[in-house]
Amino acid sequence: MDLDIRRMRYFVAVAEECSFVRAASRLYMTQPALSRQIRALEEDLDVVLFLRDRQGTVLTRAGHQLLEDARPMLAMAQAVQQRVRTANREVNQFTIGFMPGVIVTPIVREFARMAPQLDIDVVHTSVTDQVDFLLDGRVDVCYVRLPLPEGMFEVVPLFPEPRVVALSSEHPFAELKAVHVEDLRDMTLLQDPRDVPEWRGRVPLDPVAPPGDAGRFPATIEECLQTVALGSGCYVMPAGMAGFYRRDDVVYLTLEGVAPRMVALAYSKHRTMPELLQFAELSRRMLGPGPD
User: Fold this and answer.
1) What is the pLDDT of residues 141-186, one digit of tens each?
2) Can you list the positions of beta strands (E) in 2-151?
3) Are 108 and 115 in contact (CB under 8 A)?
4) Does domain 5-73 have CATH number 1.10.10.10?
5) Taking every annotated instance into account, which residue ranges of this chain make up the domain HTH lysR-type (predicted)?
6) Which H/E stretch holds residue 229?
């Protein structure tokens, strides 16, 4: 049995809307037609994906698992289409993704000199969407901060990056240069604690979070820092990002007792473009630790 990509799109729409009616409107189809497609998908998989009650439409355990796998699968399908269309153009396009705190200008300049046949573009990403840019084909290569989902990408580790904690400038620790993670036990961490395995303090609780989610957190780094500035918690980030997100009402302290984040270069395992290896080797030479 082969999964129907169209039905997978329908499933994701219902899962995100928590409503067959809203999902049908979003997909420009009737609700009965959408229900038939979801029923057919459930029959193909021999599972129940949704439960419907007075509170609305909720995912089953099998539905949660399918949603976790469906999003990257759909992104990969979109990336295939994009790369095929790009390959049909006369211009040989090469797109590089970069994040705050990782300076890539010298590498891009050198690569442009080495590969004059390429039309090189540079795209800004963030820690929260770096995987999306790789999956859906918006970039050919991307500077990332590990970890990434296993088995999907070729990863070239470059250098470890220490981490800092963002605190309100009114916090008693604000005058310090460094703080140990154990000293922050009384604070609330404004991000998924899986990002900071050493964390032993508080996290915001969300009684309606799906299994595996510890709480509800601000959606963007900017929202996290706004909450930090108000004195409602702290946020841990790679040191290179601190200079990019400077604010007068937030201070950044070196965070001791936590592992650094590894900065790496990543690209799809399925790509055969020779310039990928050339760019990876250049990045390793200019950003990596050098020979042992």
Assistant:
1) 999 998 887 777 899 999 999 999 999 999 999 999 999 999 999 9
2) 50-53, 56-59, 93-98, 119-124, 141-145
3) no
4) yes
5) 3-60
6) helix 221-229
**Residue in 273, 194, 188, 261 with CA at minimum distance from that of residue 230:** 188
pLDDT per position as a tens digit, 5-52: 888 888 999 998 888 888 888 888 788 888 988 998 999 899 999 998
Of 181, 197, 285, residue with least CA distance to 234: 181
Phi and psi torsions of 93, nearest 5°: -90, 140
Architecture (CATH level 2) of domain 163-256: 3-Layer(aba) Sandwich (3.40)
State the CB neighbour count (10 A cutoff) for residue 192.
14
CATH code of the domain made up of 90-159+261-287:
3.40.190.10
Start and end residues for every CATH 1.10.10.10 domain found in the chain: 5-73
pTM > 0.70: no
Residues of the chain with CATH 3.40.190.10: 90-159+261-287, 163-256
90's CB contacts (< 8 A; 6+ apart) are none
